[in-house]
User: Which sequence fits this backbone?
């Protein structure tokens, strides 16, 4: 069984991070806390982590899961 766990983790965090960042950009006044856009900041953090996981899976040499 050659499933690399970085593929699903990377996809999940990238998708959630992208959605959260887009929500932070679309409705900044609802996600402001102490003058920081929390949704945008954490969306970017999750997106970066997801992309790093996907890059690690690509560099790992294993094939992505077949759909």
Assistant:
């Amino acid at each position: 069984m050659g499933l690399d766990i970085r593929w699903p983790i990377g996809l999940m965090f990238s998708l959630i991070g992208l959605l959260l960042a887009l929500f932070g950009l679309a409705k900044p006044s609802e996600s402001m806390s102490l003058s920081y856009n929390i949704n945008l900041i954490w969306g970017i953090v999750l997106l970066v982590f997801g992309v790093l996981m996907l890059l690690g899976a690509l560099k790992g040499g294993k094939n992505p899961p077949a759909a």
Q: What stands out?
A: The chain has a mean pLDDT of 87. The helical segments are 6-26, 38-59. The chain is about 65% helix and 5% strand. Residues 28 and 34 are 12 Å apart (CA to CA).
